[in-house]
Amino acid sequence: MYHPKSVSTLIGELVKLPGVGQKTAERLAFFILKASKNEAEKLARAILDVKGTIRQCSICNSIADSDPCEICGNPKRDKTTLCVIEEPHDLFAIEKTGGYRGYYHVLMGVLSPLDGVGPDDLSIDGLVNRIEKDGIKEVIIATNPNMEGDATAMYISNLIKPLEVKVTRIARGLPMGGDLEYADEVTLMKSFEGRMEI
Q1: Which one is the CATH code of 78-169: 1.10.3720.10, 3.30.300.20, 3.90.550.10, 3.40.1360.10?
Q2: Percent of the chain with pLDDT strictly greater than 90
Q3: I need a labelling partner for 198 at 20 to 30 A (CA). Which of 82, 128, 159, 176 fits?
Q4: What angle is formed at CA 77 by the lines to CA 126 and CA 52, rounded to 5 degrees?
Q5: Positive or negative, the Cα torsion across 74, 51, 116, 170?
Q6: Neighbouring residues of 101: CB distance < 8 A, sequence distance ≥ 6
Q7: pLDDT attached to residue 102
Q8: Mean pLDDT, rounded, for 50-73
Q9: pLDDT (tens digit, 9 = 90+) per residue, 91-105?
Q10: pLDDT at 77
């Protein structure tokens, strides 16, 4: 399909975004074309601002406006608990629940030998250092429930258990409002394994 060069360029850039296919990129491009110049400039400015102001927290590795980030700089959080996650967006998902009050450590990925990602490519050394110097009593491993996430969780668990710290893994199972008949076998099995006394 023919598009003016600048529209084709915009579509080409939008299609690089995760989860955005050709049709969605075209819809977004035409939405931006219909928007006022002021709205388009606000979007462009927001993109440039985020690239210019966001940095990595030197303590937890998450993204933030400042260093340390708001969470690492908050003395009211539980200093004895550390939640290990894969990426910064996992932190935001957990924080939205309002149920966790400890600190975080972002690995910046997971172990994936097929992709050439080993322990030295993740911030595992920083995790060990924090456990040793910060008096951490419990490490909650909250990597994704897939092969790479499980392998990473097992590797970290074996590495830090000698540090005499409690190591836990987030539970897995059925979502709230879900029906048993629609659950896959692995999810259903994990639900039984993670059962709790009531």
Answers
A1: 3.40.1360.10
A2: 80
A3: 82
A4: 60
A5: positive
A6: 77, 78, 81
A7: 96
A8: 94
A9: 999 999 888 999 999
A10: 97
Strands in the chain per DSSP E:
55-56, 63-64, 78-85, 102-106, 138-141, 166-169
- pLDDT confidence of residue 189: 82
- Residue 136 — φ and ψ, nearest 5°? -70, 135
Tokens of 114: 């097929």
Q: Where are the alpha helices (DSSP H) in 19-105?
A: 22-34, 37-53, 88-97
Give me the residues paired with residue 122 across strands. Answer: none
Q: Of 78, 72, 191, 67, which Cα lies nearest the Cα of 140?
A: 78
Name the pTM for this structure.
Answer: 0.81
Rounded Cα–Cα distance for residues 125 and 139 (Å): 14
